[in-house]
Recover the amino acids of this structure.
């Protein structure tokens, strides 16, 4: 982290200068006064800068360009309980840990979009919260010029799909804010992201808040770069496609349902479908062939608040129908009274442009949420999403995940080269979530003391390991489980030159499947230079016991 030091101690400088004056006067026959020179301004030292001008930036007067001026982002200047006058801060990690660092550095990739000399580097630890970020104060409230009711930020995008959140906030009341999220489209290059606000947002906010990758959990230390925060002309919002018809009407008896939003049932009275939580989401009701659906446009997050708490402890599931053509991440939260009493469930957005139905077991929430005291829903994500038929019911849902891992393999350890298995010693250093620009979310789940890999929102997913010579082995083994998918593609990949071959695998939903694929079926992959796997598919799939076998 950067260190800041005083270049001069002004009191010491004054005393030293006074002493020189006294000596000079004593030796001066004319006893004429010597006028002290003005002391040089006190400066700060910031790593990465030859010199630094410290001042709270103003968006109203100049672009915030991070050219070694503005906020030095020192630990001494960070807002905390011990320093209520701090001018910047971080959030989303453990207290007392510098889990997010900000540095002024040379532009890593100058070009047409951003030719600046210096930029701001954001360095985040692995495992911090998916909403971790930082903020810094301005010296005055933002006043949007006419025709420039937007803010642009230059972002160096490693890959498309990075969701960058910008919030403008009142530093004296953090509950007063507006925010928007924009998704990157470039690969390894700078791009200018533009966040639309409005003239009504002028003269309200004097703090900038940035989350470099909202809803992303770092599996390793991650670096981002931003630069040039400035006013901009608002961008035209593209019209997102919409469903042409409503989802299929539910068929459960009304007596078995507690409905929140559905034309097929009588809904809970008094529900507020658009409480003011500071969200940028625009909520409306759309008629599709005589059936009402909810539309969340420009989603960042959106709440639903009940007039009184719901006791859903006698139900087993919550049903949701949803449709999107552009969302890349979508989470549904159930919330009860009390701090921290909310839990999220990721919704599958791998199939766009069609209605999807999900029945989530309430047991997926009950370890955190009090089912006898449900007060709110929340949805977060991006894009535009339509919802219908949100209701609790008593039917036992189809299991969305396996209760336990697959049967343990029985092959002798000396006949196996294992990539992922609790039954064997795995190849060291394997990266199970390399950044290939995928939307897949990878986690390791423990099922009855057995670790398995879970791919959520699968589109494609890589696995990288040191080059392996598997020419002495006969097959590759995989175990896999999905609640609703019927096929998945597995690729074996060798290098120099990179060669990959696909094998389409059938899935029987709701049970563990096992397969041993002859390595001869992957020709012309060079078996003495295998260094990657790739999975291509959709939905959520669990995997275990990746190993080569003689």
């Amino acid at each position: 982290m950067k260190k800041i030091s005083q270049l001069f101690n002004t009191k010491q400088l004054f005393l030293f200068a006074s002493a020189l004056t006294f000596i000079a006067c004593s030796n001066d026959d004319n006893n004429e006064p010597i006028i002290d020179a003005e002391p040089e301004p006190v400066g700060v030292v910031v790593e990465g800068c030859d010199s630094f001008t410290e001042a709270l930036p103003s968006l109203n007067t100049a672009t915030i360009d991070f050219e070694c001026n503005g906020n030095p982002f020192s630990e001494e200047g960070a807002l905390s309980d011990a320093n209520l006058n701090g001018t910047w801060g971080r959030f989303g990690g453990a207290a007392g840990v510098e889990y997010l660092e900000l540095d002024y550095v040379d532009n890593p990739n100058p070009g047409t979009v951003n030719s600046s000399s210096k930029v701001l580097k954001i360095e985040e630890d692995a495992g911090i919260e998916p909403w971790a970020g930082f903020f810094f104060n301005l010296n005055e409230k933002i006043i949007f010029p006419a025709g420039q009711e937007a803010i642009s930020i230059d972002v160096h995008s490693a890959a498309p799909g990075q969701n960058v959140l910008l919030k403008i906030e009142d530093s004296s009341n953090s509950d007063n804010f507006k925010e928007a999220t924009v998704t990157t489209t470039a690969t390894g290059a700078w791009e200018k992201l533009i966040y639309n606000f409005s003239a009504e947002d002028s003269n309200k906010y004097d703090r900038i808040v940035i989350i470099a990758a909202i809803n992303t959990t770092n599996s390793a230390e991650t670096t981002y770069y931003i630069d040039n925060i400035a006013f901009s002309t608002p961008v035209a919002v593209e019209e997102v496609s919409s469903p042409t018809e409503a989802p299929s009407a539910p068929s459960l008896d009304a007596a078995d349902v507690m409905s929140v939003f559905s034309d097929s049932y009588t809904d809970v009275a008094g529900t507020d479908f658009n409480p003011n939580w500071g969200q940028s989401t625009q909520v409306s009701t759309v008629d599709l062939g005589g059936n009402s659906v909810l539309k969340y446009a420009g989603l960042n997050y959106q709440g639903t608040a009940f007039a009184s708490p719901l006791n859903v402890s006698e139900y087993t599931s919550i049903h949701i129908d949803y449709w999107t053509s552009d969302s890349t991440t979508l989470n549904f939260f159930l919330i009860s009274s009390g701090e921290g009493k909310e839990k999220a469930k990721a919704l599958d957005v791998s199939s766009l442009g069609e209605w999807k139905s999900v029945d989530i077991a309430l047991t997926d929430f009950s370890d955190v949420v009090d089912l006898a005291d449900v007060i709110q829903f929340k949805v977060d994500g991006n894009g535009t999403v339509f919802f219908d038929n949100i209701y609790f019911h008593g039917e036992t849902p189809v299991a969305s995940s396996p209760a336990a891992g697959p049967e343990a393999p029985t092959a002798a350890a000396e006949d196996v080269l294992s990539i992922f298995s609790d039954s064997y010693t795995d190849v060291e250093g394997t990266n199970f979530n390399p950044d290939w620009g995928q939307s897949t979310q990878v986690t390791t789940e423990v099922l009855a003391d057995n670790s398995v890999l879970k791919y959520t929102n699968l589109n494609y997913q890589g696995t990288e390991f040191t080059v392996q010579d598997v020419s002495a082995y006969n097959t590759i083994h995989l175990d896999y489980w999905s609640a609703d998918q019927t096929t998945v593609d597995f690729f074996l990949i060798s290098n120099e030159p990179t060669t990959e071959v696909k094998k389409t695998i059938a899935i029987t939903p709701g049970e563990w499947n096992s397969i041993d694929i002859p390595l001869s079926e992957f020709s012309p992959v060079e078996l003495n230079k295998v260094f990657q796997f790739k999975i291509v598919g959709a939905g959520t799939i669990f995997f275990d016991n990746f190993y080569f076998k003689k």
User: Anything to note?
Assistant: The helical segments are 10-27. The first strand starts at residue 53 and ends at 54.
